[in-house]
Design a protein that fits this description.
This protein has 365 residues and is an alpha+beta fold. It folds into two domains: 4-237, Rossmann fold, CATH 3.40.50; 239-359, no CATH class. Helices cover 23% and strands 36% of the residues. The chain is built from eight helices and 20 strands. It has helices at residues 47-55, 97-107, 112-125, 141-153, 171-187, 199-205, 223-228, 233-238, and strands at residues 4-13, 21-31, 36-40, 62-67, 70-71, 82-85, 159-163, 191-196, 208-213, 216-221, 245-252, 255-259, 265-270, 278-284, 290-305, 309-316, 319-326, 336-340, 347-350, 356-359. The strands form four sheets. A six-stranded mixed sheet has the order 6-7-8-3-9-10, with helices on both faces. A six-stranded antiparallel sheet has the order 13-12-11-14-19-20. It has a four-stranded antiparallel sheet with strand order 2-1-4-5, covered by helices on one side. Helix 2 runs parallel beside helix 4 (141-153). The longest helix has 17 residues, at 171-187. The two termini are 37 Å apart. The structure holds adenosine-5'-diphosphate and magnesium ion. The site of adenosine-5'-diphosphate has 12 residues, from strand 2 and helix 1.
Protein backbone atom coordinates (compact mmCIF):
# COMPACT_ATOMS: atom_id res chain seq x y z
CA UNK A 1 0.00 0.00 0.00
CA UNK A 2 1.49 3.32 -0.94
CA UNK A 3 1.05 6.68 -2.54
CA UNK A 4 2.16 7.15 -6.12
CA UNK A 5 3.78 10.45 -7.09
CA UNK A 6 4.71 11.62 -10.56
CA UNK A 7 6.76 14.80 -10.64
CA UNK A 8 7.39 16.64 -13.93
CA UNK A 9 7.46 13.38 -15.88
CA UNK A 10 8.35 13.53 -19.57
CA UNK A 11 8.56 10.82 -22.20
CA UNK A 12 10.44 11.49 -25.40
CA UNK A 13 10.81 8.59 -27.82
CA UNK A 14 13.99 8.78 -29.89
CA UNK A 15 14.34 6.42 -32.78
CA UNK A 16 17.16 6.63 -35.28
CA UNK A 17 16.36 8.45 -38.50
CA UNK A 18 13.03 9.73 -37.15
CA UNK A 19 12.06 12.95 -35.40
CA UNK A 20 11.66 12.50 -31.62
CA UNK A 21 8.12 12.02 -30.29
CA UNK A 22 7.32 14.00 -27.14
CA UNK A 23 4.58 11.65 -25.86
CA UNK A 24 4.24 12.84 -22.22
CA UNK A 25 4.85 16.43 -21.17
CA UNK A 26 5.72 17.39 -17.62
CA UNK A 27 3.00 15.39 -15.90
CA UNK A 28 2.49 15.90 -12.15
CA UNK A 29 0.15 13.56 -10.29
CA UNK A 30 -0.26 12.59 -6.65
CA UNK A 31 -2.31 9.43 -6.24
CA UNK A 32 -3.40 8.43 -2.75
CA UNK A 33 -3.11 5.07 -1.04
CA UNK A 34 -6.02 2.90 -2.15
CA UNK A 35 -7.18 5.42 -4.74
CA UNK A 36 -8.58 4.31 -8.11
CA UNK A 37 -7.46 6.65 -10.87
CA UNK A 38 -8.46 6.61 -14.53
CA UNK A 39 -6.20 8.01 -17.26
CA UNK A 40 -8.64 9.18 -19.91
CA UNK A 41 -7.96 10.58 -23.34
CA UNK A 42 -8.16 9.89 -27.05
CA UNK A 43 -5.83 7.53 -28.89
CA UNK A 44 -2.19 8.68 -28.91
CA UNK A 45 -2.51 11.17 -26.05
CA UNK A 46 0.17 9.42 -23.95
CA UNK A 47 -1.83 7.16 -21.61
CA UNK A 48 0.02 3.91 -22.28
CA UNK A 49 3.39 5.69 -22.23
CA UNK A 50 2.59 7.06 -18.77
CA UNK A 51 1.52 3.65 -17.48
CA UNK A 52 4.56 1.87 -18.94
CA UNK A 53 6.92 4.38 -17.30
CA UNK A 54 5.28 3.70 -13.93
CA UNK A 55 5.59 -0.05 -14.51
CA UNK A 56 9.20 0.26 -15.66
CA UNK A 57 8.78 -0.96 -19.23
CA UNK A 58 9.76 2.45 -20.58
CA UNK A 59 12.50 4.76 -19.32
CA UNK A 60 11.46 8.08 -17.83
CA UNK A 61 13.01 10.79 -20.02
CA UNK A 62 12.74 13.48 -17.32
CA UNK A 63 11.17 13.72 -13.89
CA UNK A 64 10.62 11.36 -11.00
CA UNK A 65 8.20 8.57 -10.13
CA UNK A 66 7.88 7.55 -6.47
CA UNK A 67 5.83 4.81 -4.80
CA UNK A 68 5.71 5.60 -1.09
CA UNK A 69 9.26 6.57 -0.17
CA UNK A 70 10.86 4.60 -3.02
CA UNK A 71 12.03 6.25 -6.24
CA UNK A 72 10.99 3.88 -9.03
CA UNK A 73 12.90 5.46 -11.92
CA UNK A 74 15.90 3.13 -11.87
CA UNK A 75 14.25 -0.01 -10.51
CA UNK A 76 13.59 -2.98 -12.79
CA UNK A 77 9.88 -3.77 -13.32
CA UNK A 78 10.04 -6.86 -11.07
CA UNK A 79 11.47 -4.80 -8.20
CA UNK A 80 8.67 -2.23 -8.20
CA UNK A 81 5.88 -4.23 -6.56
CA UNK A 82 3.65 -3.25 -9.45
CA UNK A 83 1.19 -5.50 -11.30
CA UNK A 84 0.27 -4.59 -14.87
CA UNK A 85 -2.38 -5.81 -17.31
CA UNK A 86 -1.11 -4.91 -20.78
CA UNK A 87 -3.06 -3.50 -23.69
CA UNK A 88 -1.91 -6.53 -25.77
CA UNK A 89 -2.51 -9.06 -22.91
CA UNK A 90 1.03 -10.61 -23.11
CA UNK A 91 -0.15 -14.06 -21.95
CA UNK A 92 2.18 -17.08 -21.94
CA UNK A 93 0.86 -19.28 -24.81
CA UNK A 94 2.30 -22.61 -23.50
CA UNK A 95 0.59 -22.18 -20.10
CA UNK A 96 -3.09 -22.83 -19.40
CA UNK A 97 -5.32 -19.94 -18.37
CA UNK A 98 -5.12 -21.30 -14.79
CA UNK A 99 -1.31 -21.22 -14.79
CA UNK A 100 -1.20 -17.80 -16.45
CA UNK A 101 -3.48 -16.41 -13.75
CA UNK A 102 -1.61 -18.07 -10.88
CA UNK A 103 1.87 -17.41 -12.29
CA UNK A 104 2.99 -14.62 -9.95
CA UNK A 105 1.69 -16.43 -6.86
CA UNK A 106 3.51 -19.62 -7.89
CA UNK A 107 6.75 -17.69 -8.33
CA UNK A 108 6.29 -16.09 -4.91
CA UNK A 109 6.02 -19.64 -3.45
CA UNK A 110 2.47 -19.08 -2.25
CA UNK A 111 1.02 -22.30 -0.76
CA UNK A 112 -0.78 -24.40 -3.38
CA UNK A 113 -4.12 -24.36 -1.59
CA UNK A 114 -4.11 -20.57 -1.40
CA UNK A 115 -3.20 -20.25 -5.09
CA UNK A 116 -6.13 -22.53 -5.94
CA UNK A 117 -8.49 -20.53 -3.78
CA UNK A 118 -7.42 -17.18 -5.21
CA UNK A 119 -7.45 -18.40 -8.82
CA UNK A 120 -10.99 -19.70 -8.29
CA UNK A 121 -12.06 -16.41 -6.68
CA UNK A 122 -10.70 -14.15 -9.43
CA UNK A 123 -11.86 -16.54 -12.19
CA UNK A 124 -15.40 -16.41 -10.87
CA UNK A 125 -15.21 -12.61 -10.53
CA UNK A 126 -14.15 -12.24 -14.19
CA UNK A 127 -16.28 -15.11 -15.60
CA UNK A 128 -13.37 -17.26 -16.80
CA UNK A 129 -13.97 -20.25 -14.51
CA UNK A 130 -15.00 -22.41 -17.47
CA UNK A 131 -11.81 -21.86 -19.49
CA UNK A 132 -9.13 -22.39 -16.82
CA UNK A 133 -7.78 -25.51 -18.55
CA UNK A 134 -7.65 -23.93 -22.01
CA UNK A 135 -4.59 -22.35 -23.64
CA UNK A 136 -4.51 -18.65 -24.66
CA UNK A 137 -4.38 -19.23 -28.45
CA UNK A 138 -7.65 -21.21 -28.25
CA UNK A 139 -9.77 -18.59 -26.45
CA UNK A 140 -11.39 -15.37 -27.70
CA UNK A 141 -9.85 -11.89 -27.44
CA UNK A 142 -12.32 -10.99 -24.68
CA UNK A 143 -11.35 -14.12 -22.72
CA UNK A 144 -7.65 -13.39 -23.23
CA UNK A 145 -8.20 -9.89 -21.95
CA UNK A 146 -9.99 -11.13 -18.82
CA UNK A 147 -7.20 -13.69 -18.26
CA UNK A 148 -4.65 -10.89 -18.43
CA UNK A 149 -6.72 -8.79 -16.03
CA UNK A 150 -7.06 -11.75 -13.63
CA UNK A 151 -3.30 -12.30 -13.72
CA UNK A 152 -2.75 -8.70 -12.60
CA UNK A 153 -5.57 -8.42 -10.04
CA UNK A 154 -4.83 -11.73 -8.29
CA UNK A 155 -1.53 -10.30 -7.02
CA UNK A 156 -3.19 -7.57 -4.93
CA UNK A 157 0.02 -5.61 -5.55
CA UNK A 158 0.94 -2.27 -3.94
CA UNK A 159 0.02 -0.73 -7.25
CA UNK A 160 -2.06 -2.18 -10.08
CA UNK A 161 -1.80 -0.75 -13.61
CA UNK A 162 -4.51 -1.72 -16.08
CA UNK A 163 -4.22 -0.65 -19.73
CA UNK A 164 -7.65 -0.57 -21.47
CA UNK A 165 -8.65 -3.58 -19.34
CA UNK A 166 -12.14 -4.08 -20.77
CA UNK A 167 -11.85 -2.78 -24.35
CA UNK A 168 -12.64 -6.19 -25.92
CA UNK A 169 -15.74 -6.99 -23.88
CA UNK A 170 -19.39 -6.80 -24.83
CA UNK A 171 -21.14 -3.76 -23.28
CA UNK A 172 -23.32 -5.82 -20.89
CA UNK A 173 -20.42 -7.89 -19.56
CA UNK A 174 -18.29 -4.74 -19.31
CA UNK A 175 -20.89 -3.05 -17.14
CA UNK A 176 -21.18 -6.06 -14.81
CA UNK A 177 -17.42 -6.55 -14.50
CA UNK A 178 -16.82 -2.85 -13.93
CA UNK A 179 -18.90 -3.01 -10.76
CA UNK A 180 -17.29 -6.26 -9.56
CA UNK A 181 -13.76 -5.02 -10.23
CA UNK A 182 -14.46 -1.79 -8.39
CA UNK A 183 -15.71 -3.76 -5.35
CA UNK A 184 -12.62 -5.99 -5.48
CA UNK A 185 -10.24 -3.01 -5.64
CA UNK A 186 -11.99 -1.31 -2.73
CA UNK A 187 -12.17 -4.50 -0.66
CA UNK A 188 -8.41 -5.05 -0.98
CA UNK A 189 -7.58 -1.31 -0.76
CA UNK A 190 -5.63 -1.59 -4.03
CA UNK A 191 -4.08 1.58 -5.42
CA UNK A 192 -4.96 1.40 -9.10
CA UNK A 193 -4.27 3.37 -12.26
CA UNK A 194 -6.24 2.27 -15.30
CA UNK A 195 -6.18 3.60 -18.84
CA UNK A 196 -9.27 4.06 -20.95
CA UNK A 197 -10.56 6.09 -23.87
CA UNK A 198 -14.13 5.35 -22.72
CA UNK A 199 -15.46 8.09 -20.47
CA UNK A 200 -18.32 5.97 -19.16
CA UNK A 201 -15.77 3.45 -17.90
CA UNK A 202 -13.67 6.21 -16.35
CA UNK A 203 -16.68 7.84 -14.66
CA UNK A 204 -17.95 4.50 -13.34
CA UNK A 205 -14.69 3.11 -11.97
CA UNK A 206 -12.48 6.00 -10.93
CA UNK A 207 -12.32 8.03 -7.73
CA UNK A 208 -10.47 10.64 -9.80
CA UNK A 209 -9.86 10.97 -13.51
CA UNK A 210 -6.76 12.38 -15.19
CA UNK A 211 -7.76 13.79 -18.58
CA UNK A 212 -4.85 13.85 -21.04
CA UNK A 213 -4.49 15.42 -24.46
CA UNK A 214 -1.34 15.81 -26.55
CA UNK A 215 0.80 14.38 -23.74
CA UNK A 216 -0.41 17.11 -21.36
CA UNK A 217 -2.46 16.45 -18.23
CA UNK A 218 -5.46 18.73 -18.72
CA UNK A 219 -7.22 18.17 -15.41
CA UNK A 220 -7.03 15.66 -12.56
CA UNK A 221 -10.26 15.68 -10.59
CA UNK A 222 -13.27 13.75 -9.33
CA UNK A 223 -15.82 12.82 -12.01
CA UNK A 224 -18.38 15.36 -10.77
CA UNK A 225 -15.78 18.15 -10.84
CA UNK A 226 -14.84 17.34 -14.43
CA UNK A 227 -18.49 17.74 -15.35
CA UNK A 228 -19.36 20.75 -13.21
CA UNK A 229 -16.03 22.57 -13.15
CA UNK A 230 -14.01 21.71 -16.29
CA UNK A 231 -10.64 23.47 -16.16
CA UNK A 232 -10.62 24.38 -19.84
CA UNK A 233 -12.46 24.10 -23.13
CA UNK A 234 -10.81 20.79 -23.95
CA UNK A 235 -12.11 19.06 -20.82
CA UNK A 236 -15.49 20.79 -21.17
CA UNK A 237 -15.99 19.42 -24.68
CA UNK A 238 -14.40 16.03 -24.04
CA UNK A 239 -16.42 15.00 -20.96
CA UNK A 240 -20.15 14.58 -21.43
CA UNK A 241 -22.33 12.99 -24.06
CA UNK A 242 -23.60 14.68 -26.13
CA UNK A 243 -20.81 17.25 -25.69
CA UNK A 244 -21.25 20.65 -24.08
CA UNK A 245 -22.60 23.34 -26.43
CA UNK A 246 -19.90 25.97 -26.97
CA UNK A 247 -20.88 29.45 -28.22
CA UNK A 248 -18.61 32.30 -29.31
CA UNK A 249 -19.14 35.69 -27.75
CA UNK A 250 -17.81 38.57 -25.73
CA UNK A 251 -18.39 40.37 -22.47
CA UNK A 252 -19.53 43.92 -23.22
CA UNK A 253 -20.69 45.97 -20.23
CA UNK A 254 -23.49 44.19 -18.40
CA UNK A 255 -24.04 41.74 -21.23
CA UNK A 256 -22.65 38.60 -22.75
CA UNK A 257 -23.11 39.05 -26.49
CA UNK A 258 -23.44 35.67 -28.24
CA UNK A 259 -22.55 35.58 -31.92
CA UNK A 260 -23.56 33.37 -34.84
CA UNK A 261 -20.91 31.41 -36.74
CA UNK A 262 -20.97 34.25 -39.29
CA UNK A 263 -19.89 36.58 -36.47
CA UNK A 264 -23.17 38.49 -36.21
CA UNK A 265 -24.84 39.31 -32.92
CA UNK A 266 -27.36 36.54 -32.14
CA UNK A 267 -28.66 37.28 -28.64
CA UNK A 268 -27.47 38.45 -25.24
CA UNK A 269 -27.25 36.87 -21.81
CA UNK A 270 -26.76 38.77 -18.55
CA UNK A 271 -23.13 39.16 -17.43
CA UNK A 272 -22.04 38.99 -13.77
CA UNK A 273 -20.30 41.63 -11.68
CA UNK A 274 -16.81 40.05 -11.89
CA UNK A 275 -16.83 39.41 -15.65
CA UNK A 276 -14.03 41.25 -17.48
CA UNK A 277 -14.62 42.65 -20.97
CA UNK A 278 -13.20 40.52 -23.77
CA UNK A 279 -13.60 37.56 -26.08
CA UNK A 280 -15.02 34.46 -24.45
CA UNK A 281 -16.55 31.09 -25.14
CA UNK A 282 -19.78 30.23 -23.36
CA UNK A 283 -20.64 26.59 -22.65
CA UNK A 284 -23.90 24.97 -21.63
CA UNK A 285 -24.55 21.24 -21.25
CA UNK A 286 -27.33 19.88 -23.48
CA UNK A 287 -29.45 18.72 -20.53
CA UNK A 288 -29.38 22.26 -19.06
CA UNK A 289 -30.86 23.90 -22.18
CA UNK A 290 -34.53 24.53 -21.31
CA UNK A 291 -37.03 23.92 -24.08
CA UNK A 292 -40.65 25.10 -24.01
CA UNK A 293 -40.20 28.24 -21.95
CA UNK A 294 -37.86 31.20 -21.94
CA UNK A 295 -36.99 34.46 -23.65
CA UNK A 296 -35.14 33.08 -26.68
CA UNK A 297 -36.70 32.03 -29.99
CA UNK A 298 -35.67 28.60 -31.19
CA UNK A 299 -36.51 26.50 -34.21
CA UNK A 300 -36.20 22.70 -34.13
CA UNK A 301 -33.85 21.36 -36.82
CA UNK A 302 -33.59 17.74 -35.63
CA UNK A 303 -35.38 15.44 -33.18
CA UNK A 304 -33.89 12.09 -32.24
CA UNK A 305 -35.57 9.81 -29.73
CA UNK A 306 -32.95 7.49 -28.23
CA UNK A 307 -35.12 5.21 -26.11
CA UNK A 308 -34.95 7.07 -22.82
CA UNK A 309 -34.11 10.59 -23.90
CA UNK A 310 -34.64 12.95 -26.79
CA UNK A 311 -31.85 14.89 -28.48
CA UNK A 312 -33.08 18.07 -30.11
CA UNK A 313 -31.11 20.23 -32.49
CA UNK A 314 -32.38 23.78 -32.10
CA UNK A 315 -31.36 26.90 -33.96
CA UNK A 316 -31.60 29.67 -31.38
CA UNK A 317 -31.54 33.08 -33.04
CA UNK A 318 -28.93 31.80 -35.50
CA UNK A 319 -26.89 29.66 -33.07
CA UNK A 320 -27.17 25.86 -33.31
CA UNK A 321 -27.58 24.15 -29.92
CA UNK A 322 -28.25 20.59 -28.81
CA UNK A 323 -30.79 20.04 -26.04
CA UNK A 324 -31.46 16.78 -24.23
CA UNK A 325 -34.73 16.03 -22.49
CA UNK A 326 -35.94 12.89 -20.74
CA UNK A 327 -38.61 10.88 -22.47
CA UNK A 328 -40.27 11.72 -25.77
CA UNK A 329 -40.90 15.24 -26.96
CA UNK A 330 -43.39 15.66 -29.77
CA UNK A 331 -41.96 18.68 -31.50
CA UNK A 332 -41.73 18.48 -35.25
CA UNK A 333 -38.83 19.69 -37.33
CA UNK A 334 -39.29 23.35 -38.28
CA UNK A 335 -41.49 24.13 -35.26
CA UNK A 336 -40.81 27.20 -33.16
CA UNK A 337 -40.07 26.70 -29.45
CA UNK A 338 -39.11 29.13 -26.72
CA UNK A 339 -35.71 28.37 -25.18
CA UNK A 340 -33.94 29.44 -21.97
CA UNK A 341 -30.23 29.22 -21.15
CA UNK A 342 -30.25 29.46 -17.35
CA UNK A 343 -27.49 31.66 -15.95
CA UNK A 344 -26.49 29.08 -13.36
CA UNK A 345 -25.84 26.53 -16.15
CA UNK A 346 -23.31 28.66 -18.05
CA UNK A 347 -19.56 28.01 -18.14
CA UNK A 348 -17.32 30.86 -19.33
CA UNK A 349 -13.90 30.33 -20.89
CA UNK A 350 -11.18 32.66 -22.10
CA UNK A 351 -11.33 32.59 -25.91
CA UNK A 352 -7.57 32.70 -26.44
CA UNK A 353 -6.27 30.28 -23.78
CA UNK A 354 -9.40 28.15 -23.32
CA UNK A 355 -8.99 28.40 -19.52
CA UNK A 356 -12.18 28.39 -17.48
CA UNK A 357 -13.23 31.81 -16.12
CA UNK A 358 -16.30 30.81 -14.12
CA UNK A 359 -18.86 28.04 -13.78
CA UNK A 360 -22.56 28.07 -13.14
CA UNK A 361 -23.67 26.88 -9.75
CA UNK A 362 -23.92 23.14 -9.35
CA UNK A 363 -27.48 22.08 -9.93
CA UNK A 364 -29.21 20.02 -7.28
CA UNK A 365 -30.59 17.64 -9.91
N1 LIG B 1 7.88 2.96 -28.84
C1 LIG B 1 7.50 4.13 -29.39
N2 LIG B 1 8.30 4.80 -30.23
C2 LIG B 1 7.96 5.97 -30.79
N3 LIG B 1 6.77 6.59 -30.56
C3 LIG B 1 5.92 5.96 -29.72
C4 LIG B 1 6.22 4.71 -29.10
N4 LIG B 1 5.17 4.36 -28.31
C5 LIG B 1 4.25 5.33 -28.45
N5 LIG B 1 4.69 6.30 -29.29
C6 LIG B 1 3.97 7.55 -29.66
O1 LIG B 1 3.73 8.27 -28.47
C7 LIG B 1 2.44 8.87 -28.50
C8 LIG B 1 1.63 8.39 -27.31
O2 LIG B 1 1.37 7.00 -27.44
P1 LIG B 1 0.63 6.15 -26.33
O3 LIG B 1 1.23 6.44 -25.01
O4 LIG B 1 0.62 4.73 -26.77
O5 LIG B 1 -0.85 6.76 -26.39
P2 LIG B 1 -2.26 6.20 -25.90
O6 LIG B 1 -2.03 5.02 -25.01
O7 LIG B 1 -2.88 7.36 -25.19
O8 LIG B 1 -3.03 5.84 -27.13
C9 LIG B 1 1.83 8.51 -29.84
O9 LIG B 1 2.10 9.57 -30.73
C10 LIG B 1 2.59 7.27 -30.23
O10 LIG B 1 2.64 7.13 -31.63
MG1 LIG C 1 -2.72 3.04 -25.23
Amino acid sequence: MAELNLTAVDKIYQSRGKPPVHAVRSVDMAIGDGEIVGLLGSSGCGKTSTLRMIAGFEDVSRGEIRLGSRVLNELAPAERGVAMAFEGYALYPPLTVRDNVGFALLRARTPKAEIERRVAEIASLLEIGDILDRYPPTISAGQQQRTSLARALIRRADLSLLDEPMSQLEPQLRAILRARIKDFLIEHKMTTVFVTHDQTEALALADRIAVMEGGVLQQFAAPADLKERPANLFVASFIGEPPMNIMAGEIAGQEIVIRTVQGEKAFTLPAQAGDRPGEIRVGIRPHRVRVGEGPLKGQVVSNQWLGDQTHLGIEVEGVLLVAVTDGTLNIGIGEAVPVALPGDALHLFDAASGAALRHGEVSAA
